[in-house]
Design goal:
heterodimer; A: 101 residues; mainly alpha; 4 helices; 67% helix; B: 699 residues; alpha/beta; eight-stranded mixed β-sheet; 23 strands; 33% helix; transmembrane helix (chain B); Ncstrn_small (chain B); Nicastrin (chain B)
Chain lengths: 101, 699
């Protein structure tokens, strides 16, 4: 979809939909929001809806940052300590590597 | 193509159409024939030489440890190095310039000190390949522990602290414990054959440092695959076996399990389990299994085979006496499997007896006579071991003394002396210990060693026919070898033990003394059985008695042999014998086996027959797995890991720098071509428009 040809109100509704959708545990929607609307929000000349779009993009970026931090921390801890957790680690895993603890 | 107008009227039209078709087929056939003559060459075969005979060491787990070897999932690659001496290890561990190394050891260097040093330097060691010689070494060595099964016998701290942990006698003084160490590189065994010559030649050509200079790349390398799936201990691997919600459920290990073989001289009702009123049983026990450092090599000639062959011969010697003049007590022959790994078979039988899941009960057992290691000559002396702790009870002591007297009187007139060790000593590792754990039963274990083992290759791959001096004159065919009564069979304790055991069992069961002289073990039978288990199992006698697909391993062969040696023929058709479903047969009292039999002299068809006997199998799986107590200290918890591929191959390997250079050049070519394409496409109008200008000028 080429944002050049989309009227501004539709741009706003798109941005809002992606922003609201990201709350359903879908951080990739926020990522898409940030990447797609970044130019619109910060690099285009000012138009009426731009303030709202800016707000949504900023909030999406914040949410995305939070998700990335949480996931990275959990993944690091899990990969590092799964072997030591024994039974709990095995029950949390989908695929357990063969031959190594 | 349209059909000619005359088709359907005149016959030759069809042939013309067929002519067209057949010529097409002819052309196709010719083209195919051309392809048949074309050959192909595989690049893989030019690079790698696969090893044909590879015997790995595998990973075993118990409640607390993992033992054995492990390799990476994609195999361990190491530059070959043939170790010359223990000092040469320095090259592998410290000074060699091209680690990791794959060390080739002669069997004389496969010692504990070298293996421990290699284990400690395992970042530079990719694996070990041991070349097994054709002849046994002169020095005795045993990879087993020096105190076998010390945690699951009867001598615990509670029973008698002075006798626990081999405080009185170290049974296996030559034991290095190598089989119970953990290595994180693969260890393979190779025979002295063509493959090993190829490997040595490759090493000489490429890896040998000539005149003090370091060997240059490309070097000869070997890759060994033996990735084991299980890890940590039995509880972990059983848990991973049972996880239901993983994406790809996979079994990673299996508990060690097999079957015990047992038979009774008077058939017992096998469907009525538990205590049998009025039944008093003399238990004659022996061990079926053995092991070595490597997987599936377990000759166990002195460790296991000598004992159970003696008991089989005794069962055969007793057949006539027990059928013509049956003694008042029953005699139960029991061959236990899995005894090497913390008494799997005997602990299971005791457990079954305690839970009323076996044909008799522990209260039915009157006494136990076990045949241990009896294969070595050792001045023709047999030693009777008994448990001093249970003998503190006077009634048990009386029974044991009576049994020993009977054994000594049975041995009189034979060329063997039978005596007690003469001092207070615990029982050697034997299945009888598990029965003592449950009940103080009087019993004796017959061995050929007075205190420590005389077997210098206990549970080793060298414990084979050569160690028992079973040799034949060189020009005999296999059939002649089968029938040749070797010196071993003639004068060894195996034969004497069989006769002594048979006579003692008869007297112990209450039989008449007058019949003793007629109970003798048959040297022909002993020699045939020894030949079948130690030299070649695919001989004509075994082929008659045991189905061909079941001849691997001692369990089924012992079962069929016991059935043949103690049972009798029944005249029924083959399918009724096999299915046990004809009402005239008695499956609860007997077991029926279909035996292939021999071919009569005039034909090649084997004449089979149905053998009815009291020989049965009973499951030998440690009770820990039925009770799901995977950290049990009372029962064996041994499991064996599963694996995907076991193989090895050799090839030439290039230096790391060359590999990086090749990769770098490739990446450079890729980037250059991408850049060129980008430049050309962005300047396409300049590059490609010059040809069009003359075309504009039209005339």
């Amino acid at each position: 979809m080429n944002l050049e040809r989309v009227p501004n109100e539709e741009k706003l509704t798109l941005c809002r939909k992606y922003y609201l959708g990201g709350y359903a545990f879908l951080p990739f929607l926020w990522l898409v929001n940030v990447v797609w609307f970044f130019k619109e929000a910060f690099m285009k000349p000012v138009y009426t809806e731009q303030l709202q779009i800016k707000k949504y993009v900023k909030r999406s970026a914040l949410g995305l940052l939070l998700w990335v931090t949480v996931l990275t921390t959990w993944i690091t801890i899990f990969q590092r300590f799964r072997a030591e957790w024994g039974e709990v680690g095995d029950y949390l895993s989908f695929t357990i590597p063969l031959g190594i603890p | 193509t349209s059909t000619p107008a005359c088709c359907g009227v005149l016959p030759f039209c069809r042939t013309r159409k067929m002519d067209l078709l057949s010529s097409k087929w002819l052309v196709n056939l010719l083209v195919c024939c051309l392809f048949v003559g074309v050959g192909c060459n595989s690049v893989e075969k030019k690079i790698y030489v696969n090893l044909n005979y590879t015997v790995p060491c595998v990973r075993l787990l118990n409640a607390t440890h993992q033992i054995g070897c492990q390799s990476h999932l994609s195999g361990n690659v190491g530059v070959l190095h043939v170790l010359e001496s223990e000092e040469n290890l320095d090259w592998v561990l410290h000074s060699g310039l091209t680690p990791p190394y794959l060390v080739i050891l002669e069997s004389s260097l496969f010692t504990r000190s070298i293996m421990m040093k290699l284990k400690n330097g395992s970042s530079r060691v990719a694996g070990v390949a041991v070349v097994t010689p054709n002849a046994n070494p002169s020095q005795g060595t045993s990879p087993h522990t020096s105190c076998p099964n010390e945690n699951t016998g009867v001598y615990t701290e509670n029973y008698d602290p002075t006798m626990a942990r081999c405080n009185v006698t170290v049974w296996n003084p030559l034991g290095t414990g190598l089989s119970y160490e953990e290595f994180d590189f693969p260890i393979f065994a190779m025979k002295e054959d063509n493959d090993t010559q190829v490997i040595r030649q490759c090493y000489m050509d490429h890896n040998r440092a000539g005149n003090g200079s370091t060997p240059q790349y490309p070097l000869c390398a070997m890759q060994l695959y033996s990735h084991m799936s299980a890890v940590t201990d039995t509880a972990t691997c059983m848990r991973r076996n049972n996880i239901n919600f993983s994406l790809s459920p996979e079994m990673v290990c299996d508990p060690l399990s097999d079957f015990n073989v047992w038979a009774s001289t008077r058939p017992l009702n096998n469907t009525a389990k538990g205590h049998k009123e009025g039944e008093s049983v003399v238990l004659a026990a022996a061990r079926l299994d053995s092991r070595s450092f490597f997987f599936d090599i377990a000759p166990g000639a002195e460790s296991g085979v000598s004992g159970f062959v003696a008991l089989l011969a005794a069962a055969h010697a007793l057949r006539n006496a027990t059928q013509e003049a049956p003694p008042p007590r029953n005699i139960l022959y029991a061959f236990f499997h899995g005894e090497t790994f913390d008494y799997i078979g005997s602990s299971r039988m005791v457990y079954d007896m305690e839970k009323n899941n076996f044909a008799v009960d522990l209260d039915n057992i009157h006494s136990v006579l076990e045949v241990g290691q009896v294969g070595l000559h050792a001045e023709s002396r047999l030693w009777l071991h008994s448990d001093p702790v249970s003998r503190k009870n006077s009634s048990v002591n009386e029974e044991v003394k009576k049994l020993i007297l009977r054994l000594q009187s049975a041995a009189s007139g034979l060329n063997v002396s039978v005596e007690e060790p003469g001092f207070s000593q615990p029982l050697p590792p034997s299945s009888f210990q598990r029965f003592l754990r449950a009940r103080p039963i009087p019993g004796v274990v017959i061995e050929d060693h007075r205190s420590a083992f005389t077997n210098s290759f206990y549970e080793s791959m060298y414990d084979n026919a050569e160690y028992l001096n079973i040799s034949y004159p060189p020009d005999l065919t296999p059939d002649e070898q089968l029938e040749y009564v070797t010196d071993t069979a003639k004068v060894s304790p195996t034969l004497a033990v069989a006769t002594v055991v048979a006579r003692t069992l008869y007297i112990q069961a209450g039989g008449a003394e007058s019949r003793l002289g007629s109970i003798n073990a048959d040297p022909q039978m002993v020699t045939r059985i020894l030949y079948g288990f130690l030299v070649r199992s695919n001989n004509s006698w075994f082929q008659q008695l045991i189905p061909s697909d079941l001849r691997t391993g001692p369990r089924t062969s012992t079962w069929y042999l016991l059935a043949n040696l103690t049972g009798s023929t029944v005249n029924v058709m083959s399918d009724t014998c096999f299915n046990n479903c004809v009402f005239v047969l008695l499956p609860q009292m007997y077991s029926y086996l279909w035996v292939q039999g021999a071919a009569p002299p005039n034909s090649t068809e084997r004449v089979g027959f149905c053998m009815r006997s009291a020989a049965r199998l009973s499951k030998a799986l440690s009770p820990a797995f039925d009770l799901h107590e995977y950290t049990s200290k009372d029962y064996s918890t041994w499991t064996e890991s599963r694996w995907k591929t076991i193989k090895g191959r050799i090839f030439l390997v290039a230096s790391h720098e060359l590999e990086m250079l090749t990769l770098g050049v490739g990446v450079g070519v890729l980037l250059t071509s991408l850049m060129l394409t980008y430049i050309m496409s962005s300047k396409a109008d300049i590059l490609f428009s010059s040809g069009r200008e003359p075309a504009n000028a039209t005339y």
